[in-house]
Specification:
Radius of gyration of chain B: 19 Å
Helix content of chain A: 55-70%
Number of strands of chain A: 0
Strand content of chain A: under 5%
Shape of chain B: globular
Structural class of chain B: mainly alpha
Number of strands of chain B: 0
Strand content of chain B: under 5%
Largest interface: A-B, 30 and 32 residues
CATH architecture of chain A: Up-down Bundle
Helix content of chain B: over 70%
Order of helices and strands of chain B: HHHHHHHH
Structural class of chain A: mainly alpha
CATH class of chain A: Mainly Alpha
Oligomer: heterodimer
Number of helices of chain B: 8
Number of domains of chain A: 1
Shape of chain A: globular
CATH topology of chain A: Four Helix Bundle (Hemerythrin (Met), subunit A)
Number of helices of chain A: 6
């Protein structure tokens, strides 16, 4: 994130809003182009899967979005621990920004999943371990944002939010375990297994052309995730600077 | 932290718990309303169900745990809102008591409150849903107690947070309910197996999740509690 071009001058709260640096920069533009490239490649230049048909193409969005959501939530946890430890407003701003972005990617996962599940599983939803834990991650971080909105005092807001985020991270293994004990239907990871990375594997889990699209998807979505967190962080920094100037 | 004349962790926690229970014992309003709410909930669920389609023994555990969680929320809500009047919380904070002991005291009072509700809820479900009496009911009470520990660990912490926000009544369920999912799930599957007369090997794994949850969140919430107080 440090490599983000920060050509604009440091925010000056006494200037009118029009001259303040805009949160969206070159990194965001690059991420949008990468996502457009991913869509074009996965729709026109990646073969249709033999068994699942066109529905399988959701995989190139669904899995990268899930990984990006996890990335964003990890940043929330990191920012929260750092904030409780160092009492640094920047760590809280990182947690706040990443939570919002994580919730967006989480929503993408929860909407693209059912679209794939209907033709493949013949049901929109099932109470499978992965689906349930993803849904409850969404609930926890929705509550996280509501909690932030319900507290006016910045120091208290930051501490409460950090406590909730850390407990939320502890909760997910328990939801996963309890649903897993019950039943699970979700496909096991295709790419996150050792045989996927063996160069001369005679039966790779994913043909090379699909694998390239998948990696492009991962790259594009993670770039978008980081770009959005950076943009949201800049916005939060501007907002805090303006609030400080007005107080 | 505490000077030499201050009571130790256990003693201060018990003092705070006793204070809360005394307040409750003298007014009895919260206990009475939570008890009526519980029995009412159990009775209302009965009419939401077609008795020819679902056997009452299959439905009873679900009803018990859902009603139990909601009546628990009523109790937890009260726990810190009583400290709001006359800013009694400030008096607690300036007293020579370490902050973890305030959490422990509040949690003990909530646990006893919720266990008292369970002593009414479990027999009420047994009565209305025609459950077998005897040993399974005692094991069910044990499961209820394990669930109550996890519920109180999470709920006491969130109640102390929610009471300081603009959306206190709405926020406590919103924060707590996702955390109650592993509890309700484990308790209801374990109790369904238990009441169906299945061997202990089938419900024991669920109790292990309950116990693990209790240990992890008791420790985590005790450590997190000081961060939810004003500095």
């Amino acid at each position: 994130m440090t490599s983000v071009p920060t050509s604009a001058a440091a925010p000056r709260a006494d200037l009118p809003p029009a001259t303040l640096p805009r949160p969206f920069g070159a990194l965001f533009l690059l991420a949008v182009l990468a996502v457009i490239g991913l869509y074009i490649r996965s729709i026109y230049f990646t073969p249709i899967e033999a068994v699942q048909g066109a529905a399988q193409k959701i995989y190139y969005i669904h899995v990268p979005a899930a990984i990006s959501a996890y990335l964003a939530y990890s940043l929330v946890a990191l920012g929260s621990v750092m904030h409780l430890w160092l009492h640094d407003a920047r760590a809280d701003r990182l947690a706040e920004s990443a939570a919002e972005v994580g919730l967006v990617f989480n929503t993408v996962v929860l909407t693209s999943g059912p679209l794939w599940a209907k033709p493949i599983w013949n049901t929109w939803w099932t109470w499978d371990a992965r689906l349930t834990s993803t849904l409850f991650l969404w609930f926890i971080f929705a509550a996280y944002l509501v909690l932030r909105g319900a507290i006016d005092e910045p120091a208290m807001r930051a501490r409460f939010a950090a406590v909730l985020a850390i407990l939320g991270v502890l909760l997910i293994p328990f939801i996963h375990m309890s649903v897993y004990l019950f039943r699970t239907l979700h496909p096991m990871p295709i790419m996150l297994q050792p045989s996927a990375f063996q160069p001369n594997n005679p039966a790779p889990p994913l043909p090379p052309v699909m694998r390239t699209t998948f990696f492009l998807g991962m790259g594009a979505f993670m770039l978008l995730c980081v770009a959005l967190v950076v943009a949201r962080y800049r916005y939060a920094a501007l907002r805090d600077a303006a609030a400080e100037a007005n107080s | 932290m505490a000077d030499e004349t201050a009571p130790g962790f256990g003693a201060s926690a018990w003092l705070i718990a006793r204070k809360d229970l005394t307040v409750e014992f003298r007014t009895k309003t919260a206990f009475f309303s939570a008890m009526v709410f519980t029995v009412l909930g159990i009775a209302i669920f009965f009419f939401a169900w077609d008795s020819t389609a679902v056997a009452s023994i299959d439905l009873a555990p679900g009803v018990l745990w859902v009603v139990f969680v909601f009546s628990g929320l009523l109790a937890l809500q009260r726990s810190f809102s009583v400290e709001q009047s006359d800013r009694a919380m400030d008096a607690l904070l300036v007293s020579p008591v370490i902050r973890e002991a305030i959490y422990a005291g509040k949690a003990i009072a909530n646990l006893l409150f919720i266990c008292a509700i369970q002593l009414i809820a479990v027999p009420a479900v047994a009565l209305f849903y025609n459950l077998p009496l005897g040993r399974p009911l005692l094991v069910l009470l044990g499961m209820a107690w394990l669930t109550a520990v996890g519920l109180v660990a999470i709920g006491t912490l969130f109640a102390s947070m929610a009471v300081n926000t603009r959306l206190a009544e709405l926020l406590l369920p919103m924060l707590s309910l996702p955390f109650f999912v592993p509890l309700v799930m484990s308790a209801s599957y374990a109790s369904t197996k238990l009441l169906a007369g299945r061997p202990a090997a089938e419900w024991w794994p669920w109790l292990r999740i309950l116990i693990g949850f209790d240990i992890v969140f008791l420790v985590a919430c005790t450590l997190a509690f000081p961060f939810t107080l004003e500095e």
